[in-house]
């Protein structure tokens, strides 16, 4: 603990505090002075907290300090049970609470400054989910989150640049090197100008070179523009594909819809929105307001002790007992008419609860559907970017799966057939190899017999003649068959043409009738379409009028809500001021000295007495200093004279030593001459 206080005193005596404390003066600080010192340290970390605590209420001071300590992630010593003691000690300025906080803050001031600076921009403002249903609020919240992410990235880049090692000396060296290079380039340009001036038509050549450079720059800019336009065209094509997909989906949805179904859907949506506006949202808003009111009331009250909690619990138990007694009395006075009304009330309450539950389920389903639609759009855009093809719809995907299954079964059948053919091919290959071996053996035997008989090559010649004759006979048969086939094919074609003409004659007649009927149906369809368009336009105008009415009601509701909040806030402030005045009057009039000491007048009287005592002590100290000033100045003059005297003696002693050393050197030189 002593090392901790020593560290705090050393840090407070340095810049930027310069408090000039010692251990005794720091330890003798009053609770109010300790709180002001803690507020000064917090103000050095975050300039918004550099305030005089005498100008604000103790509850506001404690709330402000606790909020900043929470942002700075200070963890008080002890467990969760000690948090209330920590808050109470912070309010009263207790030394065991304030000293560890000061030690923790002064240990890491620079780090906490950075954290407090970042907290101004990175502490996220929580917006209730029901407010995010409004498109304007949702857009503003999204922009707020995007700006927060941009700030994070910029801060990271700033920190990286600070730690990248670039110093001012290096930048100056780079600037000087670039200036030298600029001078060298200027001299080189001058030399080239002088050299070019001797050439004929140098002005025209310079102009042509300048135009060439401009054209090259223009070519580069045009190429860049071309690349940008290509990328824009690619993105536009992607957007067009997505729009076409959405159009197909909307057409698929609207294909089977009718005016009656659209009207029914709009009525359901209007009923649901009107229920939200008139019943659900005002009720939730009222509950939120009551909860906020109670929370503000709890925050405004001073810190509660265990005795206060036990008293409140006993009061709650008494109220519950009274409620039970009243319920029993009412049950004793039970009447049949009341039973009927109670039954109806129960049924109405059950229906209202079911209605609220279904409305919440519908709202959750709508939110889930919107999130799933956003995910589907993201996945569709990703698929377009990766493959560039359209995404299949549900029906197309089912057809594709069925087709794939049929192909899979066909593939399995073909695979079995291929396996059977492969096995048969292996058997036939083995048979062929055995027959080839037998044929070669027979041929060798035949050649041996022919050589014995003296007619070698006879069998080969015989085989060749038989093969040629067989080929000739086959060719003749093929030619004859080809001619026969051609004549038969011509006959068949003529017969087929005649049959088709005969069979198509009634079909053509029927087709003419169908074409006429198609024209009539097309005309009727156009008329129905015109009627549908007119009906849809009327419904659209009605819907827009209803939307405008709902919008006006919402704006009126928002205006009334803001007025209610303003009046409620003014009422609350007036109640607080009135309560403070009553508490002050009660404490001032109370005979209890402990209660009277809590009054603001008594506190200020006590502070004035303390300051008067402090001024009295300082005046006595000033008097003592004035009385001892002349003797002290005289003593200081004597010490200065004594210092000058000693300095003079030291200089005389040094001169005497130098003269003695010179005389000794002269005597030694005389002795050396005598020896020579």
UniProtKB/TrEMBL annotation:
Keyword Cytoplasm included in the entry's annotation: yes
Q: Which locations, inside or outside the cell, does it occupy?
A: Cytoplasm, Cytoskeleton, Cilium basal body
The IFT81 calponin homology domain is annotated at 3-126
Mind naming one GO cellular-component term on file for this protein?
ciliary basal body
Q: Which residues form the signal peptide?
A: none
What's the superkingdom here?
Eukaryota
Q: Name one GO biological process term.
A: cilium assembly
Keyword list (alphabetical) reads: Acetylation, Cell projection, Cilium, Cilium biogenesis/degradation, Coiled coil, Cytoplasm, Cytoskeleton, Differentiation, Phosphoprotein, Spermatogenesis
GO MF term list: tubulin binding
InterPro entries named among the record's database cross-references: IFT81, IFT81_CH, IFT81_N_sf
Tell whether Iron is among the UniProt keywords: no
Question: Coiled coil where?
Answer: 137-253, 309-389, 483-531
Tell me which family the UniProt entry assigns to this protein. Belongs to the IFT81 family.
Its annotated function is as follows: Component of the intraflagellar transport (IFT) complex B: together with IFT74, forms a tubulin-binding module that specifically mediates transport of tubulin within the cilium. Binds tubulin via its CH (calponin-homology)-like region. Required for ciliogenesis. Required for proper regulation of SHH signaling. Plays an important role during spermatogenesis by modulating the assembly and elongation of the sperm flagella.
Spell out the protein name for this chain. Intraflagellar transport protein 81 homolog
Organism listed in the record:
Ptilonorhynchus violaceus (Satin bowerbird)
């Amino acid at each position: 603990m002593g090392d901790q206080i020593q560290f705090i005193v050393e840090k407070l005596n340095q810049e930027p505090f310069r408090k000039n404390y010692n251990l005794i003066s720091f330890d003798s600080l009053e609770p109010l002075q300790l709180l002001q010192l803690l507020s000064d340290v917090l103000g050095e970390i975050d300039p918004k907290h550099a305030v005089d605590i005498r100008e604000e209420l103790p509850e506001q001071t404690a709330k402000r300090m606790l909020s900043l300590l929470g942002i700075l992630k200070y963890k008080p010593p002890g467990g969760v049970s000690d948090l209330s003691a920590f808050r109470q000690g912070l309010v009263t300025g207790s030394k065991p609470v304030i000293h560890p906080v000061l030690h923790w803050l002064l240990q890491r001031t620079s780090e906490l400054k950075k954290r407090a600076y970042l907290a101004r921009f990175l502490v996220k403002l929580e917006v209730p989910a029901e407010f995010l249903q409004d498109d304007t609020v949702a857009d503003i919240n999204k922009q707020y989150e995007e700006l927060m992410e941009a700030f994070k990235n910029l801060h990271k880049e700033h920190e990286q640049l600070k730690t990248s090692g670039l110093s001012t000396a290096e930048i100056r060296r780079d600037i000087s090197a670039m200036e030298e290079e600029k001078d060298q380039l200027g001299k080189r340009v001058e030399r080239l100008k002088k050299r070019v001036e001797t050439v004929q038509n140098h002005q025209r050549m310079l102009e042509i070179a300048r135009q060439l450079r401009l054209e090259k720059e223009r070519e580069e800019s045009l190429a860049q523009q071309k690349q940008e336009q290509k990328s824009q065209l690619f993105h536009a094509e992607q957007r067009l594909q997505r729009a076409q997909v959405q159009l197909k989906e909307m057409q698929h949805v609207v294909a089977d819809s009718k005016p009656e179904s659209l009207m029914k859907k709009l009525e359901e949506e209007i009923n649901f929105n009107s229920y939200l506006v008139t019943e659900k949202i005002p009720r939730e808003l009222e509950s939120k307001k009551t909860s906020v009111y109670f929370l503000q009331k709890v925050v405004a009250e001073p810190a509660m002790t265990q005795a206060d909690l036990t008293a409140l619990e006993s009061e709650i138990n008494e109220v519950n007992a009274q409620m039970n007694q009243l319920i029993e009395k009412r049950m004793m006075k039970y009447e049949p008419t009341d039973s009927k009304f109670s039954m109806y009330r129960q049924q109405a309450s059950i229906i209202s609860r079911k209605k609220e539950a279904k409305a919440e389920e519908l709202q959750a389903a709508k939110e889930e559907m919107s999130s799933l639609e956003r995910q589907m759009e993201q996945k569709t855009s990703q698929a377009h970017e990766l493959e560039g093809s359209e995404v299949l719809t549900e029906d197309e995907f089912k057809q594709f799966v069925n087709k794939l299954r049929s192909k899979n079964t066909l593939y399995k059948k073909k695979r079995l057939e291929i396996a059977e053919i492969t096995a048969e091919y292996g058997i036939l290959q083995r048979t062929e190899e055995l027959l080839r071996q037998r044929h070669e053996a027979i041929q060798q035997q035949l050649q041996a017999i022919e050589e014995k008989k003296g007619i070698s090559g006879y069998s080969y010649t015989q085989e060749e003649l038989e093969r040629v004759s067989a080929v000739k006979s086959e060719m003749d048969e093929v030619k004859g068959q080809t001619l026969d086939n051609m004549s038969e094919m011509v006959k068949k074609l003529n017969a087929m043409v005649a049959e088709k003409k005969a069979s198509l004659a009634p079909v053509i007649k029927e087709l003419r009738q169908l074409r006429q009927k198609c024209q009539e149906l097309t005309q009727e369809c156009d008329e129905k379409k015109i009627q549908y368009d007119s009906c849809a336009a009327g419904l659209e105008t009605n819907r827009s009028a209803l939307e405008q009415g709902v919008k006006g009601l919402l704006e009126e509701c928002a205006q009334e809500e803001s007025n209610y909040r303003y009046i409620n806030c003014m009422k609350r402030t007036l109640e607080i001021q009135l309560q403070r005045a009553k508490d002050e009057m009660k404490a001032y009039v109370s005979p209890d000295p402990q209660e009277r000491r809590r009054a603001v007048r008594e506190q200020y009287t006590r502070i004035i007495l303390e300051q008067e005592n402090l001024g009295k002590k300082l005046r006595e100290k000033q008097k003592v200093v004035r009385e001892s000033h002349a003797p002290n100045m005289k003593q200081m003059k004597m010490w200065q004279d004594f210092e000058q005297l000693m300095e003079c003696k030291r200089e005389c002693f040094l001169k005497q030593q130098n003269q003695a050393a010179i005389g000794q050197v002269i005597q030694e030189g005389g002795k050396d001459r005598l020896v020579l």
